[in-house]
Amino acid sequence: MKARLRPGLVMGNVVQYGDNIRDIKKMDIDVFKADIQKCIDHIHEDLTQIRTGRATPELVEEVMVNAYETMAPIKNYASISAVDAKTLSIQPWDKSILENISKAINIANMGLFPMIEGDRVLVKIPDLTEERRKEYVKLMKDRVEDGRIAVRQVRQKYMKEIEELQANGLSEDEADRTRDEIEKVVKETNQSIENIKEEKEKDLLTI
Predict the structure, then answer these.
(1) Where's the Ribosome recycling factor domain (predicted)?
(2) Exposure check for the chain: N or C terminus, fewer CB within 10 A?
C-alpha cells in the first residue's frame, strides 16, 4: 500500500497537492497540453452551434433530443448527412423518434425548418440575412474570447504549480525550461484560435 502524503509533504522525489502526487523533479507537460486541447475542443464545439448559410451535420448533431426518457444529442440516435448545400437529412436508427427529433430542432430555436419525410427528417437551412450574419459574427467572437480566457486560466494554473514545485525542490533550470515550454504551447494555441476565428468569420460572411 502506497503511503499517503500530507499536503506539501515531500517524500523522496514526490510531493502531494490535494489528491495529486507529483514528481518534484519535473512537471508533466503532457497533462498541461491535454488541458489546453480541451479548451480548443470546446471552442470547436461552441462554434459548430453557430450556423452559417451552408448545411453541415455539425450544425445539428449536438441538439438535445428527449427520447427513451432521457436527453441525448441527435448524433447518438441518427445518421446525419448533407443532401445539398441547403438541406440536411437526419435518419434515426429507430423511426419511432422522428417526431422527437423534429421537435428538438424546433425547440433549439436555431432558425431551421425540420420536416418529416418518410423515414427521415429533412432540415432546410435558410439563407442568413446580413443583419443575422453580423449578429452571429459577434456571438462567434464572444465564444472565441471565452476560449482565450480558458487558455489563460489553464496557463495560470500550471505556472502556479511550477512555483509550488520549486518551493519543494524543483530545480530552477527545470522550472525555467517548463515555463518556456508552456509559453510556447500557449502562443501556438492562441494562433490556432485566431485561425479558427478567421475561418468561421469567413464562413459566416460568405453569401
Answers:
(1) 44-205
(2) N
Has this prediction a pTM greater than 0.70?
A: no
For Cα atoms 109, 61, 137, give the angle at the middle one, nearest 5 degrees: 55
Q: What is the pLDDT of residues 141-154, one digit of tens each?
A: 999 999 999 999 99
Domains, in order of start, for the chain = 26-47+130-205 (1.10.132.20), 54-124 (3.30.1360.40)
Q: Encode 95-127: b = buried (16+ Cβ within 10 Å), e = exposed.
A: eebbebbbebbeebebebebeeeeebbbbebee
More confident residue, 100 or 9: 100
